[in-house]
# Entry
Amino acid sequence: MNLMESSNKYIITFIIIMTVVAAVSLAGMRELTLSASTKNEEIFSKRSVLLTVNDYLGKGLNVNDLSDDEVLKMFNEQVEQVVLNINGEVVPNLLAEKIDLSVEKKKAEADRLLPLFVFKNEKEKFYILSVRGSGLWDEIWGNIAVKSDLNTIAGVTFDHKGETPGLGAEIKDNPAFPGQFIGKQIFKDGEVAVLVRKGGSQDKTYEVDGISGATITCDGVTEMLQRGIAYYLPYLETIEN
Amino acid sequence: MAEILEKVKIEEKEPFFGPKEKKLLLDPLMDINPITVQILGVCSALAITSLVYPSIVMAISVTLVTAFSNFFTSLVREYIPKQVRMIVQLVIIATLVTIVELGLKALNFPIWKQLSVYIGLIITNCIVMGRLEAYAMANKPWRSFLDGIGNGLGYGAILVIVAIIREILGKGTLFAGSPVEIKIIGNNATYLIDTTTSTMFGWYANNNLMVLPAAALFIIGILIWIHRTINPKLVDIS
# Structure
């Protein structure tokens, strides 16, 4: 029962065996779950793209009630994927869902690619932009659906890597926060004017209320929106003309 | 030490799940509760208890990790070299936590998203390490496993109590984020108590302090106080 002082040889052998056992079991577990979690991740991100145009899916549909297969089907049928470069030109033969903004963020600004999803229903086209920035603890990101007037927000979704549940995580968990953005105008005199205001919005056309206790996350959302949407300006100007 | 050895000899003849095993499971819920008596795992109890649903998932994950790390450590306890004991324990815990995380990612992706950081933080939860050192290193696998389950549940019970108080007072909801979300108190008709029309609760507005980790400290403090008042023998051992 008592632990013995062991020789170095025994310790090293023990550690090597333990490391191999741990490594093999982790690698095995990862192999087992990889396909399921990749599929989950894909459906999750497609769901969050569709959620931005939730009010316009038609026939009283709601993304949260759709099954995984229905989400994939709707995405294939109604969403067109475009990849842009930083000058607003379309890069051919690339799918927007393959663009990872966390990878793009590390590139030089001139080399970055931007994903753009275009959702079509019977009446209208929606341009869904993706943005990424920093919250309090880690990265935050989001999708913004812009109506065909290229100024009014149709809906937004936010997500985060490690914000505090109940505080910063409210940008995603509390539907009322992204809900505030619906109908807000993005541009004022050619610049991105939409923002999150601590202590309550003042100009209702452009501003939404911040979350108390989550000032840094909310400032991160403002910074992310203003910088991220500005990247799409060249493209939005070309389609406007 | 001789006493413990003697005990082990007697225990070998006892049933698979006797009164002693029951005690192992139930004691951590009250008399030796990891949070209110041993004051272990307080850090994560402050951080994640603003909502009930993540607290429950966290409690289940911690219970699984404590139980199985206790079990595996106890299995190899006689072979672990004394000098690297802590490192071995950490590797066992870290491996199990990663397995739990991968499993959760494949089975329930939305919850994994919600809890991601905190799952990783189970590795640093002092309850896990504390039980390995205090119990699993000196006891048999089956008992160690039960001790892990008991302590995980004791931790989880406090977590859920604190989370219920904080979520109702801070957000006016219960189980927010889960399929059974209930709205308790708030300022529109979808809540059970509508503060705009209710004559009794019209004065109430959600308490933002409750959402902050500081509130958890107050609540845990009050729980410890209540616990010690009910059970005075705890006061002496602290």
The mean pLDDT of chain A is 87.
